Amino acid sequence: MIRNPFGTSTSGAVAILGGGIIGLSIAYELAVRRGLDVTVFDPRAPGHGASWAAAGMLAPAFEAAAEPGVHAGLFDLCMASAALWPDFAAELAARAGREVGFDAAPSLAAALDAGQMARLSGIAETLAARGVAHEVLGAEALRACEPALSEAVLGGMELPTDFRVHNRRVVEALLVVLRASRNVKFVDGAALLKSVGGRVQLDGHGAIIAAAGWETAIIKVEERGACYSLVNWDTALDDIDCHGGQMLAVEACPGAPLRVVRAGHVYLVPRGGQVVIGATVEPGRVIEAAEPEAIAALQAEAARLCPGLAGSAVTEHWAGVRPGTPDHAPFLGETVTPGLFVAAGHYRNGILLAPVTAQILADAVTGKAPGALAAAFTTRRAYTVPA
Ligand SMILES: Cc1cc2nc3c(=O)[nH]c(=O)nc-3n(C[C@H](O)[C@H](O)[C@H](O)COP(=O)(O)OP(=O)(O)OC[C@H]3O[C@@H](n4cnc5c(N)ncnc54)[C@H](O)[C@@H]3O)c2cc1C
Known about the structure:
Layout: E1 2-3, E2 9-10, E3 13-17, H1 21-33, E4 38-41, H2 50-53, E5 57-58, H3 60-66, H4 74-96, E6 107-111, H5 114-130, E7 135-138, H6 139-145, E8 155-159, E9 163-164, H7 167-180, E10 184-187, E11 193-196, E12 199-201, E13 205-210, E14 220-223, E15 226-229, E16 241-251, E17 261-263, E18 266-271, E19 274-278, E20 282-283, H8 292-305, E21 314-324, E22 331-334, E23 340-344, H9 350-365, H10 372-375
Parallel strand pairs: 3-4, 3-13, 4-10, 6-17, 11-14, 13-23
Antiparallel strand pairs: 1-2, 5-9, 6-8, 7-8, 11-12, 14-15, 16-19, 16-20, 16-21, 17-18, 18-19, 22-23
The structure holds flavin-adenine dinucleotide.
């Protein structure tokens, strides 16, 4: 049973608009774990948006502690989701009959200059204040953890809360499990949403979850023969913006790192015989294909951090779009339009935040009151919209 816009119960299916890791994880939670009927709508190949482009770092400490101006609860949300990942990955792998590349080896953060050292000190202070485990390491100790690191490294940190998963394998595993479920239907196209009396409805569905990443606000709704964007039903969705990102992967040669390593804005993620090197952050840009200059610059930075990567053969390069919000935190739960839910705007942490998002949205559509943490991420929250 799910709650409908009129506060009573209904047996209609839940419509999920968007088949990225967010929409698929919600479908998994609702259909596979809780036994509800779900329809996933996506006009493109599910799983091949930002969720395919990502590097797969599950990095609550580094990402959330490092960002100025983030939502005050984002760190706790990230930590809550990181705690769910080991079981989520194991259960998903068992149900799908395939590995998802979850690796709990602690990530490393390194500094190549004084500015980077100062930033790491700031992160270490934040982590210490929050009581989050981390170990500050000198250059020698850091290189003992990861011998591929350059002699130029000045020092850094080991972050036992930050690990990784193979995000492409995760979405593939979710698709395998969901396609095998009798409770799940996939529709290859956009949903025919209608506005009736100001409410958004979809035939045969008791609740609608908008989970179309950076395109969530522009999902179309028909009203008396005219088409409008979903943002008209909750204007906060207008604050979901696009942040382009470019990356590459190189062959994992003998001098390649075995751990996730980052320095400045560059990170290296070993994955399936390759090393993913990321990423540019380009606010306001939807980038269709990676640009040679950006890829060359990332590769040069990677070689500065791990010299063994210099000259490694590039196996792939690509671009993606992060769905950002002004406070870098997602919109989760019911919108101001009853019966219309949202799970979008996960910015740099959508892979990390998938399990906790799935639980929060499944609770919301089944009428469970949100806890304090979940309630802090509605579209009704206050934040300053940058000029
Ligand atoms: C370069 C890069 C690196 C990243 N690295 C990391 C990382 O290491 N760790 C991490 O946690 N996060 C990372 N992220 C962020 C993460 O990838 C995103 O936050 C996450 O994938 C967002 O998932 P999503 O399901 O909301 O969006 P998407 O994966 O983009 O899925 C949205 C889906 O909605 C569909 N859609 C669009 N319009 C409609 C419509 N009208 N109706 C129905 N469906 C529609 C699209 O076709 C798409 O399939 C990275 C992102 C980028 C770009």
